[in-house]
Specification:
The protein is α+β, with helices and mostly antiparallel strands. The protein is built from eleven helices and 39 strands. 18% of the residues lie in helices and 33% in strands. The strands form nine sheets. The chain has an eight-stranded mixed beta sheet, with helices on both faces.
Length: 691
């Protein structure tokens, strides 16, 4: 059997034929061919036929690998444990999400009191037969009568809003469509929200999103009657989000043109004649209004503070340079501030692990919250007038455990602990620091079985992201438990471009400094080899979205360093990314190809444009047909170019999930199917197997 498999996998791959067109663009005098431009039309019959052929080829390949069903079975076993969100109180009710284990979508529950039995409020599993409709947002009204909830279909970023009666569970007739990048903020008998105009039929998943507007919807009205509360028609690519302070006094609108930096405007809703006032005039820094307390707007910001701080702004004189400093910048990154019992709870990231401090409303330190260990706090849920709070705590080996916290006694106790079939105590995580190409020290978490001898021959799954000020922090993933059980080592590199050490760490991985991100990740693999964890024939690399770009760039720059490459829903065509849906908003990290100083840099690392006729790692590109964040054309064109040029005994596959999107809201069944295929492919090429 082994000899037959070796012969099958060593043969020349007869990939589905991908037509090449004579299409090109000129950038500042340089002509760039784009022969697969036709694959950008995801609605064409030819593209759909290509998708079917590629999926068939991939499935035929995977079906020949022994152990696929065994891997799927073990994933299902590890996944099958009850998962709870942190409880949160809004008005007079408590709410939480729960997934029994294998439900496609988590269910929202409501309680009158924590001691009462929870009852189902919204079960998204009943909204579609295949579990692909997800509950994306939930916004109760201050009087506890109603709540807005948003749903997404097939993983799309497009949302629909509905309104539900909290006491009876009855759904009102209100229905709002064409919503993206928006919550709902209640005021009076209605709420503020943001949406776009209806997109052109057939182009909902690809066309650029323009002319976002803030609307006010009155309960009982048809959507066409909603009035525009704010817009800037001269700047069609701006994105607006609105919030109401807890005292219902101020409407705060955040305005952004990219993923970093925003403007804040606000108005006093108690004064009908009040006009919007501006807090800042450009997009150079991040501002987030926490609430209105003691006459000040509490603002979390990195203005003059790369590691963030909390300031208080007088609404009558909203000059940020005259703001009161409440929580100054420190050595650790301030990642958020909550209110609890008229105290401030400051959450920090200290060497990529959580730390919580309690301060009074003036910012005077009171105490540090003792946490269960080294890991991450998530979902800190509290109320300004309540003495209790809830938070979750997780690590690479421990799933999220929910704790209740009493701020006066400064004590935490377990509120809900998961039970699953994974022996977490058999594994350990350590943090190391290694040097990148330019000498910068980069942290990396390494998780493996206790007592492992470092002989340079262990399979490694190396993960990274490196972008948009997003920190990759410790957290439990059921799929990684299966890899660890099979003898693998899980490594997470906290490379530049993320937010692990504040604004400078992020900016040193953007635009003309983007190559730092790839150098950091390559250096992580070299560290693991040099320190006898593994060797180049045993490393699989993985990343999603911006992390998909990371994998695409690293595998094309250093194809010799990795055995398996798994770029998922990646940004892979760096010359045209800004032409689709919300892509233009990423220019703050990437720059744009129509900018003369940015074009050469983008071309230098764009994965699609750097494929050469060399041997590449065994590659499985992953995407989804309803991904309207990073459109699947990126992955389609990259896979086609790899299949066309790769001089390799290793396969180049693309797995295209059908009726799925960028990742959020993906049903459990589809997620397990995807990871079964990922591990089947990875285990085979790294020489692994389940025991």
């Amino acid at each position: 059997m082994t000899m037959i498999l070796q012969d099958v996998f060593a043969q020349k791959f007869n990939y589905p034929i991908t037509r090449k067109d004579n299409v090109s663009d000129e950038y500042f005098g340089k002509v760039i061919a784009d022969p697969y431009r036709w694959l950008e039309d995801d609605n064409s019959a030819e593209t759909k036929k290509w998708v079917e052929a590629q999926n068939k080829f991939t499935n035929d390949y995977l079906s020949k690998i022994p152990g696929r069903e065994k891997i799927h079975k073990r994933l299902s076993e590890v996944w099958n444990y009850a998962k709870y969100s942190t409880p949160f109180k809004k008005g007079k009710y408590f709410f939480h999400y729960k997934n029994d284990g294998m439900q496609n979508q988590s269910v929202l529950y409501i309680q009158d009191d924590l001691d009462d039995d929870a009852r189902v409020l919204i079960d998204p599993n009943k909204l579609s037969n295949d579990g692909t409709t997800s509950l994306n947002g939930f916004y109760p009204s201050p009087d506890s009568k109603y709540a807005v909830y948003s749903i997404s279909k097939a993983g799309s970023d497009w949302n629909e809003f509905f309104v539900i009666n909290l006491a009876t569970g009855e759904q009102l007739k209100d229905h709002i469509t064409n919503v993206k990048w928006s919550g709902a903020s209640w005021k009076g008998n209605g709420f503020f929200y943001s949406r776009y105009d209806k997109p052109e039929d057939g182009k909902e998943l690809t066309s650029a999103n323009s002319y976002h507007k803030v609307y006010y919807h009155m309960l009982g009205q048809d959507q066409v009657e909603d009035r525009i509360a704010y817009q800037e028609p001269s700047f069609p690519q701006l994105i607006f989000s609105s919030e109401i302070t807890d005292d219902q006094r101020f409407l705060v609108i955040s305005i952004s043109e990219s993923t970093s930096g925003n403007r804040i405007i606000f108005k006093d809703l108690t004064n009908p004649a009040d006009k919007f006032r501006e807090m800042n005039s450009n997009y150079d820094f991040d501002f987030n209004v926490i609430d209105h307390v003691n006459g000040l707007l509490l603002v979390y910001t990195n203005y003059n503070a790369p590691k963030y701080r909390l300031i208080g702004i007088n609404p009558e004189n909203p000059n940020i340079d005259e703001a009161k400093e409440i929580i100054p910048e420190s050595e650790d990154v301030l990642t958020g501030v909550s209110l609890c019992a008229d105290r401030l709870v400051a959450q920090y990231l200290s060497n990529v692990s959580s730390k919580l401090n309690v301060l009074d409303l003036s910012g005077k330190f009171e105490k540090t919250v003792k946490l269960p260990g080294i890991g991450m706090v998530g979902g800190f849920s509290s109320d300004r007038k309540e003495k209790f709070a809830f938070y979750s705590f997780t690590s690479f080996t421990q799933p999220s455990t929910i704790y209740s916290y009493d701020i006066f006694s400064n004590t935490s106790k377990i509120y809900n602990a998961p039970k699953l079939s994974f022996k977490s105590d058999d594994y350990e995580t350590k943090q190391v620091f290694y040097k990148s190409k330019d000498g910068t020290k980069i942290p990396m978490f390494i998780t493996m079985k206790k007592g492992v001898t470092l002989n340079g021959n262990h399979p490694v799954y190396l993960y990274g992201y490196g972008g948009f000020n997003i920190s990759i922090t410790p957290g439990f993933s059921p799929q990684m438990a299966v890899f660890l059980e099979a003898g693998g080592i899980y490594a997470v590199a906290n490379i530049r471009g993320g937010g692990e050490f504040g604004t400078e760490w992020h900016q040193n991985g953007t635009k003309l400094k983007k190559q730092n991100v790839f150098d950091d990740f390559i250096a992580a693999a070299e560290y693991l080899i040099d320190n006898k964890y593994t060797n180049a024939s045993k490393i699989a690399i993985s990343g999603r979205s911006n992390g998909g770009l990371l994998i695409g760039a690293c595998m094309t720059q250093r194809p010799d360093l990795f055995k398996v490459a798994l770029p998922a829903v990646g940004v892979l065509d760096m010359l045209r990314y800004h032409k689709f849906t919300i892509g233009y908003a990423w220019a703050g990290d990437y720059g744009r190809s129509d900018e003369k100083d940015q074009f050469p840099n983008l071309l230098s690392y764009s994965p699609l444009h750097n494929v050469k006729p060399v041997e590449y790692p065994a590659t499985m590109v992953l995407t989804a047909d309803h991904d309207d964040r990073v459109v699947p054309a990126h992955s389609f064109k990259f896979a086609a170019e790899l299949q066309s040029k790769a001089q390799s005994k290793n396969p180049i596959l693309i797995r295209i999930d059908v009726n799925a999107g960028h990742g959020a809201g993906k049903p459990t069944s589809k997620t397990i199917d995807e990871w079964a295929d990922i591990w089947t492919f990875t285990f085979h090429h790294l020489g692994m197997g389940l025991k």
